[in-house]
From TrEMBL:
Pfam families per record: Flagellin_IN, FliD_C, FliD_N
Family statement: Belongs to the FliD family.
Protein name: Flagellar hook-associated protein 2
Major location (coarse): secreted
Residue ranges of every copy of the Flagellar hook-associated protein 2 C-terminal domain listed in the record: 213-443
Gene: fliD
Species: Wenzhouxiangella limi
GO term, biological process aspect, one: bacterial-type flagellum-dependent cell motility
Coiled coil residues, start to end: 399-433
Function comment: Required for morphogenesis and for the elongation of the flagellar filament by facilitating polymerization of the flagellin monomers at the tip of growing filament. Forms a capping structure, which prevents flagellin subunits (transported through the central channel of the flagellum) from leaking out without polymerization at the distal end.
Highest taxon above the source species: Bacteria
Presence of keyword Protein biosynthesis: no
Domain Flagellar hook-associated protein 2 N-terminal span(s) in chain numbering: 10-107
Amino acid sequence: MAISALGTGSGLDLNSLVEQLLQAEREPVENRLNTREERFETQLSALGLFSGALSGLRDAASGLENGTGLAQRQAVSGDESLFTATVEEGTPPGRFDIRVLGLAQADKRASAAFADGASAEVGTGTLNFTVGDDAFSINVDQDNNTLGGIRDAINRATDNTGVSAGIINEAGGARLILTGRDTGAENAINLTASGGDGGLDTLVSGFAVLTEAADAEVEIDGFTVNSSSNRIDGAIDGVTIDLAGVSAGVAEGELNVPTTSLSINENRSATLEQVRTFVDRYNALNDVLNGVASYDPETEVAGPLQGNATVRAIASQVRRELTEAVPGAALGANTLAGIGITTAEGGALRIDEGRLNEVIDQRPQALEELFGGENGVGGRLNSYLSQVVGSNSLLEGQTENLQNRIDDIGRQREALEARLERTEERLVRQFSALDSLVAELNQTSSFIEQQFANLQGGRS
């Protein structure tokens, strides 16, 4: 930093002169570094856009390779008050006639009424519960021998996995309600009493069944299927049916109970959406390439990656994977053009949805054959793009190289400032000496002028 008193002796603006000399040395180097840094940062940003667009296309291609979305199905119930259904991807289309003859139910029982309510004393001893393969017991003594105490003991039993207890207070008194936690005939509640004063025997014998534990029963195309729950999984391969009600006429005992249809159909909207996503991801990549890797003859401006050989090679290979025919796919549907996906002006893809719908209708497996598997369009693109984006990829190497260049410019700036600081110190020393010399010369000149003046005054 220049010394503030520099030039005091000579009267010269030496501080300004030092600053001008330093600026003259700094400016060309700094301009060159700024230009290079701006170019590298622009290229780095463009590579980020390019890499992001490639990653988006890779993700869409990966979904197509795995068949995600291309073989989606939808299950349509003829009456959702009776049942709904879900279907796994790839399940063959079909139609089934279903009767719901009975729903799965949990066991539910009520004790006789106790006029004294929850505080009514019941008796002592042991209550033994068996539900399916599980069993547990509770001890009832003078501390918990009321209706409420027995309820709490049942609910708090650590080995109780199948019964919940509650109390309903009605006009005739309080009743202990036992409810099985799981549906199905095998989960019926079996209750016995042992020991004590006999009061628990009376309690047990007074229980009445409110809802009998039962399995669900359905007929699918005339074949009977039973289930311990109201979810029937696998009776139709790939389909899960959730029961909600019983078919009309069952409760009345009718012989000719009507059937309700369950249809497994192609999920056209999901398939179209998957293809649209793939096309949109490619078009996003095409937009990036048109912006960062092209030359505009009207403005005579080139994109930051216009001369990047790696970017050109990647773009060329992606286009090649899109246009090559897929071996083993159906003729007429073994290329993107065959299913209605063609290249528009500017390199973007466009979809002829009429042709695409025609392929879906006539050849349901055609899209899976075209996009799916390692040799399909999705598989080829996913395999290739996984090599050029992500860790240890071609683009990662270029990104690191550009970042290293930017970091090197930062180090060059630091070196420039250090050199200028040394130059400033040298100039200050030199101009300080000059300042002192000029000051001495000025003093000598003043002395001589004074002497001449004195001589001239003496002659007069």
